[in-house]
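Q&A log
Question type: sequence-to-structure
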Amino acid sequence: MMPRPRCLLLVCAFAVCTAAHAPAQQADSPSGSALATRSLLRLELARLEAGGPHDRSAATLVRSRLASGDFQSGDRIFIRVEGEPQLTDTFTVNPVGELELPQLGTVPLYGVLRSELQERVQQHLTRFLRNPVLQVRPLIRLLIEGDVVRPGFYVVAPQQPLADVITEAGGLTQQAKPRAMRVERGRELIWSGELLQQALGAGYSLDQLNLRAGDRVLVPQQHDADHTWRIVGILLSLPVAIYAISQIRH
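Response status: OK
Response body:
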């Protein structure tokens, strides 16, 4: 494991490198707020569907969000309700996609976006409480793997930029290849290459990248291909070296 200052240096260099390829305007994404609203996602979907093959691939993620929402089994949501200690805690979405609250039943979350969560919980609580004052914060559990200092699962706010989550994982190692970074959902590749570099350089949040709990961020090693070719070069040079030694002995 390398010293932390070296990690931070690599993260800074990565940010500068990706920023050079960032979109000219943040408005090219469903921004305006760190949590995308339904109207902004619809506008973004229309723009992507009118674009090229890469845009149409990203449109699939947006279309899925609009249809099924952002929440799934195992997601965590922090709630604080003034004057109600039993309702101030981090709650988990159950296997059928509902938020279970103590003594107040369940809040169905299928089709609900993160930007709509506060209003949905507020509507549910007003059935039982008079003018409830509450804070609601959704959380995402991501797997950060590969050449970072501390790989593993991280529970983070969706408003956080992906680059910040990598920093929480300790930053990149000396062997990391940031331009080969990719994001996977199960067996499906959802972000990679130049599009991911542009998004990182622009500081896109996890929400703007349409990420959800369980997604996997992989940072490969930079020496994979180089190491292979070095081995091949060594093997090819061995016969020549052996022949040269044999000639010297004669």
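Response note: The two ends are 49 Å apart (CA to CA).
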